[in-house]
Amino acid sequence: MLRHNPQNRLLPPKYYAAPVFAGRRDAGEMIRQIAGRSVLSAGDIVDAFANAGEVAANWLAAGCSVELPEIGSLLLEFSSEGFDDPADFRPESLRGVRLRFYPSRQLMKAIKSQLNISLPE
């Protein structure tokens, strides 16, 4: 991607790497590929994902981070307005509730090793 240096727009533009969105893959396709690589059936994999989701939700709600082996970790993040008395707190006062994903080193290494780079013509 050809871009100007944002700190000095008088310099000539340079080419920078940028990810290209190549479509979306659905869960069904992932499940079929996993089933094709293992002794597990597609139903077993769906069940494992469903159970992992339930367990992860419980652990995250309890304040724990959740490690997904060889994939990464999940962590719940949020903020709230301040209260003079803790008894005044209500769940509705939470803001910016989000799930943060921290990829594992193995996952990042695998992704980087498989990147396809195409140069502009």
TrEMBL record:
Stretches assigned to the HU domain: 9-114
Superkingdom of this protein's organism: Bacteria
Gene Ontology molecular function, alphabetical: DNA binding
One Pfam family this sequence matches: HU-HIG
Matches recorded under InterPro entries: HU-HIG, IHF-like_DNA-bd_dom_sf
Keywords of this entry: DNA-binding
Coiled coil: none
Protein name: HU domain-containing protein
Species per Swiss-Prot/TrEMBL record: Odoribacter splanchnicus
